Amino acid sequence: MSTFPKNAWYVAATPDEIDEKPLGRTICNEKIVFWRPEAGKVAALEDFCPHRGAALSLGYVCEGNLVCGYHGLQMGCEGKTVAMPGQRVQGFPKIRAYPVVEKYGFIWVWPGEPALADTAKIHHLEWAESPDWAYGGGLYHIHCDYRLMVDNLMDLTHETYVHTTSIGQKEIDETPVSTKADGDHVVTSRFMDNVMPPPFWRANLRGNGLPDDQPVDRWQVCHFHPPSHIMIEVGVALAGRGGYNAEPKDKVYSIVVDFLTPETDTSMWYFWGMARNFNVKDKALTAQIKEGQAKVFAEDTAVLEAQQRNLLQWPQRKLLLLNIDAGGVQSRKVIDRWIAAEQPAKLMA
Amino acid sequence: MSTFPKNAWYVAATPDEIDEKPLGRTICNEKIVFWRPEAGKVAALEDFCPHRGAALSLGYVCEGNLVCGYHGLQMGCEGKTVAMPGQRVQGFPKIRAYPVVEKYGFIWVWPGEPALADTAKIHHLEWAESPDWAYGGGLYHIHCDYRLMVDNLMDLTHETYVHTTSIGQKEIDETPVSTKADGDHVVTSRFMDNVMPPPFWRANLRGNGLPDDQPVDRWQVCHFHPPSHIMIEVGVALAGRGGYNAEPKDKVYSIVVDFLTPETDTSMWYFWGMARNFNVKDKALTAQIKEGQAKVFAEDTAVLEAQQRNLLQWPQRKLLLLNIDAGGVQSRKVIDRWIAAEQPAKLMA
Amino acid sequence: MSTFPKNAWYVAATPDEIDEKPLGRTICNEKIVFWRPEAGKVAALEDFCPHRGAALSLGYVCEGNLVCGYHGLQMGCEGKTVAMPGQRVQGFPKIRAYPVVEKYGFIWVWPGEPALADTAKIHHLEWAESPDWAYGGGLYHIHCDYRLMVDNLMDLTHETYVHTTSIGQKEIDETPVSTKADGDHVVTSRFMDNVMPPPFWRANLRGNGLPDDQPVDRWQVCHFHPPSHIMIEVGVALAGRGGYNAEPKDKVYSIVVDFLTPETDTSMWYFWGMARNFNVKDKALTAQIKEGQAKVFAEDTAVLEAQQRNLLQWPQRKLLLLNIDAGGVQSRKVIDRWIAAEQPAKLMA
């Protein structure tokens, strides 16, 4: 049984990663080379030269083709060999091409059946296009099943314990969450009224010109969209001003952006970031938030990798499903449905 | 077939390793977290949170409980969850607790059947409790079956070749050993009369105010006790003063302390040290002896790890059993008896 | 099916590698220790002490014997234990001895059936013995099947792409190769007339006092001899002076020396070097050529290791065989014949 759907758009890279040289990256167990046939375009092929099996990602781009760095075979975007010095290439076998698109500031790849790829299925990301928002983020490679990260992000109770010095606070624990699923969209919410803001939020309050020493209303609204994209609305408003619905001038509001891309069954690419709709021109603030988030998210890495090792050692062991786990449980149900939908139909008896 | 008995006390750690934070360590293939519920007490549990499989060793201790660093589940010493924020924990499955005790300056764990654990089975270590003795030691992690180290220590012929510049001397080779087994206690002895002391012993003679340029009588008496504890009486006396039985003023006498703890079938924790009953207040001497021993014992590591690789590559190959190997052979027989005693009884035909 | 013949002479080491200490090295999946029983002699044995399996390569040589660094067992050249302190060794099992010889500035080993080893089978290397030649070279350890390197060297088209800044030039691509097999000897040739010399050859022209800014005739004649020795005649002559057959004063001519020795099925020892017959006393030139070649040949390493990873991931995938691959294809046929000849005869139906 697969651990991930393949008929889905995954974030494969950030645009700067393939600006000049090709990029070799494994996504959903597929070894893929990403490259730019021309400025602003992107192509994705199997990272395997049909001639002798060399890694195309070690090659270079020339006049719109990907040139194999071993014997100069030239690949077109569609996986067809278009030229090779001294050779007729018509009969060369095609290699696999992957649907790929650059959108919202990311490179998206579809590792499954190409005929089903439709860029309209990439769900809309308002913050990525609107001038009212600023974004900063990074990439971590983590040795764990990406679903452990789904569990992690769809329940922020762990902030109290994993992120004690930044965003954790005891009131997170003490406030129950509510989870609901609407089709493939899973939402887990927690609202904490009249609490003191932890350090990360105090810094953000200051970043928006608000006092950092007063009680606030704090919220966390985690949205899961398949295959594994999690957007978390987070923020604090000065207490009693309407909380989540307070006026912009009374709050700081951000979206924690998490694109989880399986590399293999037990490793993943973690594209993390934060979008905010206050003080958006302040690049120093963007850099400062990114740096803070990088530290916070690195704390999860050690926990999840140790958890993965434990699960590999005790594969049969049953885990608990508590109310705080409902977000992960519901999200995994969506994932399982997507995986099941990809299986070949079975004959009825 | 197991390579080690599990119904036995093994040294798991030194007390300083778990003074503040929990310690995660694999012993006999069991992933265990060691922690202190209160000063002077120690507890050992499976390193697996029953909630989602996180490593408990990444957590911390709070008010006598081990707090999981992921979601704040609190574990008691017996492996029962005692609390978790916002949860009823009565129905949580217990995790395994291991008998554990602090004694003689070490943390001892019993990785097998808890009902059989009896601290009276830890054999008495006079040097660890008496003010007439001083002790210093360290810990090495070695990639070899712990039984290769049993072989190594129950025959010190190798000192001539492995430890040429410290404790080796040609007379070791030339002097036959005598091995006898008394129940589970195996003893291999070698007595060398009227030899010049090698560098390590010359330093010790000076450390006890004795001349280092005269012939000595030297002895090595290796004691094996199951599961894998080896105490080696070593020393030199000025020649002709009675050797092993000479007056304290005429000799230097130490006990080489070796607790061999299997980590996996092909790796081990090596708790090594030396106890001496001369000049016991001299801490600089203790440090100097420890430093010398650390270098000597590191020399064994390379030899044993290469031997382990060879044995893995040629698993069927027969080895020789010579008279110098008798100590290891007899000790392994005791180990095999202990392992066999743990096997479920077979039905008679 | 084996990937290499064992009844063959392979280069195992350069003489300086075993001048003082023994050398442990795996050749064709055999763990071997090489050592010198006396100056100018070399012996090769299984790297496995018959006593307890210690690695003999960790030992030392004493009075013509290899002394095990664990318990002092002494091995003779033929794999018989000749002495051990306090032991009668007559009954000790022999370990395997490998035919080994020092010739042409290399240590050659025969990992197969000793009775078939005949040093006359080492093919003659004129450049290694004649004072008219100078030689410099090095050793790389590469994680790939040695046959990928055979492919690489028996077709130099890759120079255009892999070695763009040193020996590559577009005319290589544009000039067809000719391949012929004469028994076990495979030759692939390419002659390029009236081309500008690339940087590596410009430096060599200067090294021989010739102008470096004029057109040259360039040649590459690759000779494969089993099991996996490839000598490549390379050179350039001032254009129109006879090319390959030009007078020595009008050309620079070298032999690229490649001894490919399998370590395992997917790793190899690469003994590379260059012999030249011009300006042979100039040691600075020898060093300079070696340094340049080291850089060039390191470029192949990354390509071949990535290719090996790809082939391991897609083992069933068919590769193309183009005309440029003929040299590798023909050479592999010879290798396959040699491997087949070693298989036990099958009964006829």
Strand segment tally of chain A: 17
| Assembly level | homotrimer
The CATH homologous superfamily name of the largest domain in chain A equals Naphthalene 1,2-dioxygenase Alpha Subunit, Chain A, domain 1
Report the CATH architecture of the largest domain in chain A. Alpha-Beta Complex
Task: For the record, give the distance between the C-alpha atoms at the N and C termini of chain A, rounded to a whole number.
Answer: 22 Å
Number of domains of chain A: 2
Sketch the major β-sheet of chain A. 7 strands, antiparallel
Strand ordering within the main sheet of chain A: 11-17-16-15-14-13-12
CATH fold category name of the largest domain in chain A: Naphthalene 1,2-dioxygenase Alpha Subunit, Chain A, domain 1
Radius of gyration of chain A: 22 Å
Shape of chain A: globular
What is the CATH level 1 assignment of the largest domain in chain A? Answer: Alpha Beta
The residue fraction in helices of chain A comes out at 10-25%
Q: Which chain pair has the greatest contact? A: A-B, 27 and 24 residues
Give a written overview of the molecule.
Chains A, B, C: This is Aromatic ring-hydroxylating dioxygenase subunit alpha. Chains A, B, C: Pfam families: Rieske (PF00355), VanA_C (PF19112). The structure is a homotrimer of 349-residue chains. The first copy, chain A, has two domains: 111 residues, Rieske Iron-sulfur Protein, CATH 2.102.10.10; 217 residues, Naphthalene 1,2-dioxygenase Alpha Subunit, Chain A, domain 1. In chain A, 22% of the residues lie in helices and 31% in strands. Chain A is built from seven helices and 17 strands. In chain A, strands 11-17-16-15-14-13-12 form a seven-stranded antiparallel beta sheet. A four-stranded antiparallel beta sheet of chain A has the order 5-6-7-8, with no helix packed on it. Chain A has a three-stranded antiparallel beta sheet with strand order 1-10-9, with no helix packed on it. In chain A, a hairpin with a 5-residue loop joins strand 7 and strand 8. In chain A, helix 2 packs antiparallel against helix 7. The model of chain A has no long low-confidence stretch (mean pLDDT 94). At the A-B interface, helix 3 and helix 6 of A face loops of B.
